[in-house]
């Protein structure tokens, strides 16, 4: 028996507790998963410049993200089907995030509906949106999000079509027929704890934010079939203008890797962008977010806030992201591993570990405020 501490520890616990098809859905990436590996590998390759005999008696890990005062320069990224990984996962994560002083982002394809997440916390939360072909459905979702208290919209722009996720295909996800159903059923039956805690106690297991669009749907298979027809590869910058005109709050575009696209985002008047490759889940062999970050930050960092995601696992990773020009970072897999592996206590512990790691890194790098972290704190030799 051991006490989990790091994201890797919680990943191991989540793997033991989740049916294989759910763990692989969460853990896997596109194609041969080269970009998935690069997300972490490129963070690991960055070296920090250690300094000594600097007064670090008052280190402040706080930051301002999209106008919100946060205990860390970190937000919990949107994770689809989080409520399948842990009982009522989105609502519980939102509550822990508020306690920890960091933003929580609810996915369009989350299990818990907006009202349930709003009831779980007193502070506003962020909402992530996919552009659906049915623009009326999009407007209805935006109205519900605003009524639930969301004031920051995270619009994902790098999913015109789902990426080729071979682990999902091997597990029969999205594959009709008896054979695929039996494969998934056998994986479920091997996890009786998950059946009791999530499948039974965590009902209803539906896409909560989309219930009004599909009131008669029976279960996740029908919801997924509808969503697969709703991804729109025809979305362009005109749709960003359309969205900007209909959303009264702050708009953040997630999924940019190219400087030209970042400049176009700033021209469109968005408040922030997330440098991201969708966690390595869309196009294999593209750059990691941390590798693409410096050029984008140099190009538009004075025009909008820059966040980054993909491979963020620790407080040291947060420090590196800030040093390369980000205002903050998003983490997805790490928080859902912690919640799936050890519940709310696990997520609290992981966030506490990240804060302690960031504080220690800042102390040994000789910097006392997150706003002062920059490239001079990296070892480039």
Please outline the helices and strands.
Elements (H helix, E strand, L loop, with lengths): L6 H11 L2 H8 L6 H12 L17 E3 L2 E3 L3 E3 L5 H4 L3 H12 L4 E2 L7 H7 L5 E4 L5 H13 L4 E5 L9 H5 L7 H12 L2 H9 L18 H12 L6 H10 L3 E7 L2 H9 L4 E4 L13 H12 L4 E5 L5 H9 L4 E4 L1 H33 L16
Parallel strand pairs: 3-10, 4-5, 5-6, 6-7, 7-8, 8-9, 9-10
Antiparallel strand pairs: 1-2
Note the beta-strand portion. Answer: 5-15%
What's the N-to-C terminus distance?
42 Å
CATH fold annotation: TIM Barrel
Instruction: Kindly report the name of the CATH homologous superfamily.
Output: Aldolase class I
Given helix and strand content, the structural type is alpha/beta
Query: Could you say what the CATH architecture is?
Result: Alpha-Beta Barrel
Cα-based radius of gyration, to the nearest Å? 20 Å
Mean pLDDT: 94
Largest sheet: 8 strands, parallel
Can you identify the CATH class?
Alpha Beta
Element pattern in H and E: HHHEEEHHEHEHEHHHHHEHEHEHEH
Number of domains: 1
Number of helices: 16
What percent of residues adopt helix (DSSP H or I)? 40-55%
So what's the overall shape? Answer: globular
Which stretches are low in confidence, meaning pLDDT under 50 for 5 or more residues running?
none
Count of beta strands: 10
How are the strands of the largest sheet arranged? 3-10-9-8-7-6-5-4
């Amino acid at each position: 028996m051991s006490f989990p501490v790091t994201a890797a520890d919680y990943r191991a616990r989540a793997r033991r507790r989740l049916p294989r098809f759910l763990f692989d859905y969460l853990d896997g990436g596109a194609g041969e998963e080269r970009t998935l590996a690069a997300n972490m590998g490129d963070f690991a390759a960055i070296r920090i410049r250690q300094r000594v005999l600097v007064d670090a008696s008052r280190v402040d890990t706080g930051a301002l993200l999209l106008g919100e005062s946060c205990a860390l320069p970190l937000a919990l990224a949107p994770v689809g089907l989080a409520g399948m990984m842990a009982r009522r996962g989105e609502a519980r994560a939102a509550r822990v995030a508020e306690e920890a002083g960091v933003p929580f982002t609810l996915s369009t394809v989350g299990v818990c509906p907006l009202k349930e997440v709003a009831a779980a916390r007193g502070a506003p939360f962020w909402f992530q949106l996919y552009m659906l072909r049915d623009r009326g459905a999009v407007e209805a979702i935006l109205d519900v999000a605003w009524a639930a208290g969301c004031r920051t919209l995270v619009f994902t722009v790098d999913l015109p079509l789902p990426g080729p996720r071979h682990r999902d295909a091997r597990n029969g996800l999205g594959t009709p027929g008896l054979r695929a159903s039996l494969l998934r059923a056998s994986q479920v039956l091997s996890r009786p704890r998950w059946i009791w805690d999530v499948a039974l106690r965590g009902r209803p297991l539906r896409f909560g934010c989309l219930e009004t669009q599909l009131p008669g749907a029976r279960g996740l298979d029908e919801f997924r079939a509808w969503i697969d027809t709703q991804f729109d590869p025809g979305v362009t910058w005109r749709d960003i203008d359309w969205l900007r005109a209909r959303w009264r709050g702050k708009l953040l575009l997630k999924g940019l890797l190219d400087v030209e696209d970042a400049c176009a985002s700033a021209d469109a008047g968005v408040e922030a962008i997330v440098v991201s490759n969708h966690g390595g889940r869309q196009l294999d062999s593209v750059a990691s977010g941390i590798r693409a970050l410096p050029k984008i930050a140099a190009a538009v960092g004075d025009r909008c806030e820059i966040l980054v995601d993909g491979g963020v696992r620790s407080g040291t990773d947060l420090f590196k992201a800030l040093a390369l020009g980000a205002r903050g970072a998003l983490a997805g897999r790490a928080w859902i591993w912690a919640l799936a592996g050890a519940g709310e206590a696990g997520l609290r512990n992981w966030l506490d570990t990240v804060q302690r790691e960031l504080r220690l890194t800042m102390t040994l790098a000789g910097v006392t405020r997150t706003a002062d972290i920059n490239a001079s704190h990296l070892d480039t030799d």
